[in-house]
Amino acid sequence: MKFLSKRADSKILQNCMRYSNNPSKNKELKEALLEEQKGFCAYTEKYIDHLESVDIEHFNSSLKNTNEDGYYNYYAVLHKVNINKLDEKYSDAKFHETLFFQNKDVLDSRIFISDDMLYMVTDSEDIEAKDFVDFLMLNSNSLYEARKKHISFLSDMLKQLGDQKFLDLFKRHKSTMSYISVIENKFNLNLDHLL
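Predicted structure:
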């Protein structure tokens, strides 16, 4: 998952951007988050169409409007994802403290994508990672079906276009990179250079 890591050189940190309860004041913060996330929803990895509603998500909602809220708690996510996140059920979950998912190497060592496009924990006894997957509803039926449908479309495109034109498709149409971690896993690609 590419868009959960946080950067020490973030423009948001450098410019001391903070969330405001006045939505009109959050435009710059939302744009900066989307820029860092290359236009993708941090949770689903769906490329965000300009017509879709995007929220500044407070990962740990209990920190919203407190002094502890800040850059490391902010993500740009699709509105429909934000409202479905299981905040109450996982309010005391350990991942809120450790923030293990903000380190890509640690995240990738604990959670992987299975051949059938499900997010799985490396260690079956890793309750923290399992809770994290459940909290974000990464394997919800609707998200799983959307990933499956998109990968099926891309498989058809690969057969029709061949390898080079298939890669060119990603260059020309960024939305085809939705669910990028699943794409990279399924087609054995690294698309970082196209972001």
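Summary: The beta strands are 54-58, 74-78, 111-113, 119-121.
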